[in-house]
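Input:
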Amino acid sequence: MAESKTILIAEDSSVILNLTKKILELQKYHILSAKNGNEVIKQMESQSIDCVLMDINIPVKDGMECTREIRRSSNPQVAQVPIIAITGNANNYSMEQFREAGITDYLPKPLDFDALVRVVKQYVG
Amino acid sequence: MPAQPDFYQTLFDDAYDGLLLYDEQGRLVDCNQTALRMLGTTRPMLLASGLMAFAMPPADERQDHWLSELMLREAVLLTARTGERFSKWWHGRRTDHVMIDGWVTLHRIQLPVGMRVQLTLRDVTKGRRRHEAGEQRQQADRTQQQLRDVLSRTDLSYVLVNREGIIQDVNDFFLNFTEYSRAELIGKNYFDLFPPASDQELSRQAFLQNIREESVADACEFPLVTKLGQTRLVHWHVEFARDFDQNVTGAFFVGRDHTDRLVAARALTDNRNRLQDFLDNAHDLIQNLSIDNRFLFVNKAWKEKLGYTDDDLTQLTLNEVVHPYYKAKLLYQLRNLYKGEKVNKLETVFLTKTGKPVHLIGSISCSWQDNEPVSTRAILHDITDRIKAERLQKVYYSIANLAISSKDLNSLYGAIHRELSKIIETNNFYIALCDDARTTLQFAYFVDQNSQGSRGMGARPFSTGVSEYIIQTGRPQFLLKQELHDLIADGTITAFGLMPEVMLCSPLSIGERIIGVIAVQDYHKADAYATTDIEILHFISNQVALAIERKRNEEMINKQNARLNAIFESGSHLMWSVDMHSRLTSFNRNYAAYFLRRNGVYPALNVNLWQADMAMMDEEAHDIFQENYKKAFQGLAQRFEVRLRDARGQDTWREIYLNPIYLDDGSFEEISGMAHDITATKNSQLELAAQEEKFRAIFESFQDIYYRTDDQGIITIVSPSVYDVLGYKPEEVLGKRIVDYYVNPVDRDQLLLEVSTVGALRNFEAALRHKDGHAVPLLINARAVSGAMSGTEGIARDITELNQIQEDLRGAKNEAEAALHAKTQFLANMSHELRTPMNGIIGMIDLLHQTVASEEQEDYVDTLRKSSDALLAILNDILDLSKIQAGKLQLSESGIDLTYTLDKLHSLFSNRAAQKDLQFKYNVTPHTPRFIHTDETRLLQILSNLTSNAIKFTSQGLVNIQVSSVSTDGDNHTLRFAVQDSGIGISSENEKLLFTNFTQLDTTPTKSFGGTGLGLAISKQLAELLGGEIGVISNEGVGSTFWFTIQCKVARNEEEILQERITARERTQEVSHFENAPQVLLVDDNPINQKVAVRLLDRLGCKIDVASDGFEAISKATDPKATYDVIFMDIQMPEMDGVTAMNEIRRRLGKKTPPVVAMTAYSMKEDAERFVQEGMDDYVSKPVKTQDLYAVLRRWTTITMEPAITPRLVGVEAAVQEPEPVPAPAPVAEPLPEDTASSIDTAVLEQLRQLGGSEFAAQLYEDFEREVSQLLDEATALVKAKEYALILPHLHQLKGTGFTLGINKLAECAKSLEHTIKEGKFTGIDQRFSSLLRYFREFVATYPEVTQAV
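Output:
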């Protein structure tokens, strides 16, 4: 196996963050984390990231906004990164709205570990 | 510019002239509004009737007028054909009878639809009149001029004078005759110049008088003096000169010089023929009468007028000719004439040969011979027509007056008859009237020679008689017999009655309306009437019609008056009228009576009401009246209610109407008043109002909302309380849709559905939106309302508080239940906790007994054992009862041998009975079945209790057990067990207390009998469980019989039962030592229990390893070197329970797993089955006993045994007393699977552990605690501030993370709270948030233990 893929987890709950991180680490992914929208953007700019797991309800800039900003990036590598939303969907966004914002796929909460791994693998390999 | 139809239509309609359009065929096809306005008609009417229907052509048929429809039509057609224009006068009448003069022009126009002839009708009514007047004047002048010229040519003098006699005009002949020049005469007074001096003043006065009276002898002779003084005798004709308006302006004289005429007469006498010729050409009647009144000569006109021939004349005398009425006067005048007196004017009536009167006026002169009169000459002018016209006029007026003077219709008809007879023959006369619908013809007046004595002929249906014919045609008719026959022949009329020779019949018409006919007829003479008489009849018929109509109206008015008066005086209403000066102008009797009652006097007409009546009223009533009268006099009808107090001080309510009495011209001078007594109504109204006021007050003070909606759900009524509950003022919601206030509109639909199907619903809960936005939970009772105001009405109660209270109550209930649960758990724990040491004690005593060395020790051990047995019994009693009360005791029925059971009982108690020297026996009645189906343990328990008591309370005598079958139903039996003793007995008062819990009859501190007091209570419950009952029969001091019954079935498997018993006996008795030492792993956390079990197993020859908890058990069992034959596994262990450990071992070892036997206090059958289902191979109940262990080992090992040893076993007694322990729910702190579910789902936990190991998992929960603490702190603050919506993100995160970690209760709670808040329901949030906090605390308290690393 070549260099392991890097996944950015945007999640303000450390519980979910740690859990997700653990699950994905077991799958040999390299994990970065961001606790709010600004950190997400910062991480995106400073590192090469293969996939973003994005909680929609993160502070400062919410997941939708971050996604839009990422999609607007001048760096095509950044702009095209797969973004998987993780959400309890408190705001009742429709799939259309997710797509419009640029979200690639989404995972509902509570998190199904198997589904998480499956979806991440689908987009990152 | 495109044509605008409307524009042209307007032009057309608003044209100054009336416009009518005819098509080429001369049909009237259109007209404009002006035409309709001018004619006062409607378009359909005009188009149907044509213009000429409105025309009133002049009688003289002048050719410059449109005279007929035919004439107009021909002109229209001509115009259409040639384009020639025609203009003529048109004279007509509007429908309202206003006359119009028009100038009608026809000309051809070309329209898009084709060629049309336009008729322009110009209203020239005024212009025409002026024009005509001028024309007439001109014409008059012209006539006068012509007259002068003609007169001059015929040698006649002409003089025109004004009223004073001043000469205005003369003709040339007169100038020649009088030798004056015109200038000398014009402007001079005739009477100054011409009469002879002697006559001058007389003549002047006579003239002036004539002018004044407008009467003149139209012919006379008087002398005239010429300029040269010659006297001339001139025969003058005098006529008044009149102006256009027929006022007499003067007179003109036309005269012939009589001087010459006398000469001429003389000449004529000479020449008789010439005279005759002259006379015959005269129009006047000329006669020459001898002195003896014979006719010497009459002219042609005379003979023609009077109808005599020359032959008649020879015989005829004046007497026969003169009308008898006038004879005397004529003769008198003649005599005077003969005396030489002058007779200026002769006025008389002659009769024609047929007897018709001829009125004559003229002059008469006498011829003298030798101073003797020889004859008279008379020139007579026929004035019959004039006289007739005058009479007609008179009759006309008198008929008009008759309507007023005659007292009723009949006398009117009679009077008409009389008046009419003055002008025409009325021997046969009738008046027939028809109704407007023309259904009947009523002969109102009928005088006929052929039906003497009857004045009326009654009525007949309107049919086809002459009268009907006249009515229908509307034309007066003069009909001779032949004409009548013709009409009958052609079917126009039908004959009624005798056919007259002549008949004159005229319609009676009032305007257009024909009300009947008036007719005269004659049965004998066809010439009884002149044709002109029909005109007379027609002329007066109008007046007759009017008179009849007037009289009829008058009669109707009289009737109406009578009716009105009847109304005025009938009933209970007070009626009066008052004029502008406040004077009473009329009143009815009721008014008078009430006036008397109020004021003590009768009212009088013209009394001033203000002073006489209103002044007496109290101030309030007075003001009301004054105000209303004032308004009524302003022309406004008034209605009001007023309270009046009469003289006796009695109050009555009157409803009063004041109305202006409008006259025809719209003015009014009086006010009518009407009052009626409404006291009763008013009082009930007032009462009602008070009632309503009361209900309104209730309604307004309603705390619940009363509301009503119509069919559309619009709020129509709502109580003011809506403000208190929902913050809206009633007027804010009235007229609005109620559904808009529902938080969840579906609730409203559901309510309506319920109401519409059931008609009403109660206690329906729904949330409505408060004006400030929050939801208010309401409890609604609603029902359908039918009738005019159909819809729904209901009462809604704010249940915010109620919900709060319910919530609180629920909380309290939960707490109470929790407490109860805690108690039960406590008891169950006690069972476990007590049983464990008891297990140790009893086990040790068992072992001690086997090692006892001396008799004394033996005794001690025995005492120890008895004490521990007693203690265990007490313990079991308590636990049994709580188990029964919890409904958890289940029967374990099987077939038993009743004899054997009783034997067991007997052997249990025989020692004890023997110790007290009591006789103890049992017997079974013959028909009692031996083998039955029941729960032997429970049966023995009851029997033991009762027997134990019996022995306890009996100091001497006997204890006897009697068993009998008291009733049978096939295999079903009711068995009765009675335990009889000869003990101390029980008083009847105490009997009642016997079977209650914890009751001991002796409660003194020094009580002589021990026990828990639960025995009988338990027995009672058990007996009931077994389908029977329990009771006691006792005599204090003599003894008691405790009895109970059970329901049971006969058992048929007798062999099996017997075999089982034998096996059991063998089992209990043969406990062997295992030769080849089975390898046993004992898992128990409790050192005492370990010790007991180890010793017991050791004695059975086992090799024993001990594990103190599940984990150790797993590691030992899975040690590769381990070769266990059996694992004894305690179920209840801290940290890891036995089942979990077993499962883990099984998982790891698979098929190599040795049999695992559960050791548990869960000894009930269903519990045991459950453990087996969960994977245990077998079970033994605690406290463990040697023989149980032995049986299990023998079952699960294939090891040969040593010869039996006979250990000192816990005997049958122990087995019987061994309770079925209450299943002990795990203590709260103990991490049993079902309990952890309350805070953490172990499956999730396990998954997490597998994922990242225990530590990782534990770390996750710690993180969760920290994170959620922070979240909940924030949320708590927000909840306190009632900012519920703001905690949604917190709840959301809590939910997501909680479920992910399997902290399900907490997550569920967060989820539902989130849902509720999202729906906008904010009630009860505080409580539910508290629950959330509680779940969290629970989690915090329990999770470390659960998630601890293994």
